[in-house]
Every structure is written in structure tokens, then in C-alpha cells.
């Protein structure tokens, strides 16, 4: 099979397309014939040597979409459509950047859909993270207001769609004024240009601040996201588009505005219930829901996909279709 292997951290040319043996699943594991996989910042962090707990060489990829190709325990039928994500994929064992991947059955989510593989392949990790951030991380409710920091990322656009679906009013940021229209066309109520300080813009519209903030850029913008959120509101730290996620000499009393709650979210496949995933697939199929633009690459253009992600050339999700 063809697979993308990282031997050691570095620039995009460290991603090597190789021919490897098709992996064999043991008890409790299944083999998936990969039809599509999404590109994630997590894999960029791994490639750059920023991720912890990664063993190399490694086939990258924290998610994959395809069909069950082998299940030695006979639990899942061959040909069953499935998605899988996280659980050590692409970090401690080989992941989804390949024509076949082997994963624990416990992290497989079955579904049925006639949507194109690239459409389904854009969803697993992004939908899981957005859904978990808004529910577990923020407990967002209908009628509340939400600020998404990093709004034109795939995660930001999916979170905006989910929040609007919940009945929330959405503020979302972009560093590029030319992308304000993208946010507005995606249903964002208040698109904002982010020059590093957006709290005053938010408070011009909502003097008390938003009810909730979703931080997807990282620690450089977190203080300003906190400043844009009302007392008794909640900010969830989920993303690291800036590649910075630690706070030097963190002193909570000085750092956190009084009365504000700071949470964090990082999930696994089990945090995306199969019925939730199926429901959004069905709604995408009927045109009722959109998670945002999808940009598709063949496997042999994996370096282009990584380069586009690293340099922020695209809005929405980058997907490889095999």
C-alpha cells in the first residue's frame, strides 16, 4: 500500500510517500480501507517536532474515513462505512495517511451515507472537536452569544455552523479582511477583523461581552478572548493555530478576569456519538447543514496540502481523497 511516512521532524519534504506492507489487525482491532482523510494541525505539530508522545518513524494521520476491510473478531461486517479518529493514531501507532489503516474497534464510528467520500472525510475530527467544545467545553445554549477566535479555520467554521444550529449568535474572527465575506456567507452574525485585539470591537456591539468564547488561535490571543467575555461567562481553550499553547509563569488570579470561567477541550472518537455524526451527515445530504468549504488533494500532493495548511492559504477543511 501507499502511505505517507515521517522519519524525522522538519519541513514538508520530510513527508515521504512510500510503499509499505498492508497491516494486519489483531484481536480487538480492525483494518479500514481508507477512502479519504482530513488534514489537521495536530499532524503539522507532529511534523514540526512540537507534539509530545510521538514515536518515529510514523505514518501520520489522526483520522480516517473508509470501509471495514478486515475484522478478525467478526463484529463489524466487511464494507461497513466507518470513521475513526484519535486514540494514538499517527502518534503511537500508524495513522490515516495511507491506503489502509489498523485501529482499535472501540474507536470506530459506523455510518451510512451516499455523500462523496471527501465530504464525509472532512468531518470526523473537526465535527467531534467542535461538538465537544460547544457542549462539554462551553455548555452553549440557544439565545447565547459566542466568539470564535480563528473563525476561518475548518474547526472555526464547523463550530460556527453548530452554534448557529443551536440558536446562538456568533461572532468570529479572521486576520484577513478579504475573508469577512466568507464568514458572513457561512452564517456568522458578526465577522470581525483580528489585529490581535478584538475585545473592544465585541464590546461595542455587546457592552457586557459575549456569553462564551472559543479559543482556537492559542495562548497569544487568549487574554483578549477572555477580555471579550462577560463576567460569569466561559472561555474554552481548544485550538492552537498559532502553534503556541503554554502560558509562561501562569498566575491565575492576575491572568483571569474576575468571575470568568476558563475550560479546555480535547476529545476522542467516543466523544462523537454515532447518532450525532449520522444526524449531521443526513442534514448535509439534504442541504440543511454545511460545515464549510472542503479542498481536496490526491495522496501524492500531501506536501502541497501541508504547505497550504501551514501558510494559511485556505479557508475550511483540507482533505486527501484516495
UniProtKB/TrEMBL annotation:
GO MF term (any one): oxidoreductase activity, acting on NAD(P)H
Domain Enoyl reductase (ER): 10-320
A Pfam family the protein falls into: ADH_zinc_N_2
Chaperone keyword on record: no
Record keywords: NADP, Oxidoreductase
Source organism superkingdom: Bacteria
SMART domains found in the cross-reference section: PKS_ER (SM00829)
PANTHER family assigned to the protein according to its UniProt record, in alphabetical order: QUINONE OXIDOREDUCTASE PIG3 (PTHR48106:SF18), QUINONE OXIDOREDUCTASE PIG3-RELATED (PTHR48106)
The name this protein goes by in its record: NADPH:quinone reductase
Species of origin: Streptomyces uncialis
Amino acid at each position: 500500500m501507499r502511505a505517507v511516512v515521517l522519519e524525522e521532524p522538519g519541513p514538508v519534504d520530510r513527508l515521504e510517500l512510500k510503499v509499505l506492507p498492508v497491516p494486519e489487525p489483531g484481536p480487538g482491532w480492525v483494518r479500514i480501507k481508507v477512502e479519504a482523510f482530513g488534514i489537521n494541525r495536530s499532524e503539522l505539530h507532529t511534523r514540526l517536532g512540537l507534539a509530545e508522545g510521538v514515536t518515529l518513524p510514523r505514518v501520520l494521520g489522526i483520522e480516517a474515513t473508509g470501509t471495514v476491510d478486515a475484522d478478525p473478531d467478526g463484529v463489524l461486517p466487511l464494507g461497513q462505512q466507518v470513521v475513526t479518529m484519535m486514540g494514538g493514531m499517527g502518534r503511537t501507532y500508524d495513522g490515516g495517511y495511507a491506503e489502509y489503516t489498523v485501529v482499535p474497534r472501540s474507536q470506530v464510528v459506523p455510518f451510512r451515507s451516499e455523500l462523496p467520500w471527501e465530504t464525509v472525510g472532512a468531518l470526523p475530527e473537526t465535527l467531534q472537536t467542535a461538538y465537544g467544545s460547544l457542549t462539554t467545553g462551553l455548555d452553549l445554549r440557544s439565545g447565547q452569544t459566542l466568539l470564535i477566535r480563528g473563525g476561518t479555520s475548518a474547526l472555526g467554521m464547523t463550530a460556527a455552523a453548530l452554534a448557529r444550529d443551536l440558536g446562538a449568535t456568533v461572532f468570529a474572527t479572521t486576520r484577513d479582511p478579504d475573508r469577512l465575506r466568507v464568514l458572513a456567507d457561512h452564517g456568522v452574525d458578526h465577522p470581525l477583523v483580528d489585529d490581535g485585539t478584538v475585545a473592544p470591537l465585541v464590546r461595542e456591539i455587546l457592552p457586557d461581552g459575549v456569553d462564551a468564547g472559543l479559543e482556537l488561535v492559542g495562548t497569544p490571543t487568549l487574554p483578549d478572548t477572555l477580555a471579550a467575555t462577560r463576567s460569569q461567562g466561559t472561555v474554552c481553550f481548544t485550538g492552537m493555530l498559532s502553534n503556541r499553547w503554554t502560558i509562561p509563569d501562569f498566575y491565575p488570579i492576575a491572568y483571569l478576569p474576575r468571575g470568568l470561567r476558563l475550560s479546555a477541550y480535547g476529545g476522542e472518537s467516543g466523544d462523537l456519538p454515532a447518532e450525532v455524526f449520522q444526524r449531521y451527515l443526513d442534514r448535509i445530504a439534504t442541504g440543511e447543514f454545511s460545515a464549510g468549504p472542503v479542498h481536496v488533494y490526491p495522496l501524492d500532493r500531501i506536501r502541497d496540502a501541508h504547505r497550504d495548511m501551514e501558510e494559511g492559504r485556505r479557508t475550511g477543511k483540507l482533505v486527501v481523497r484516495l
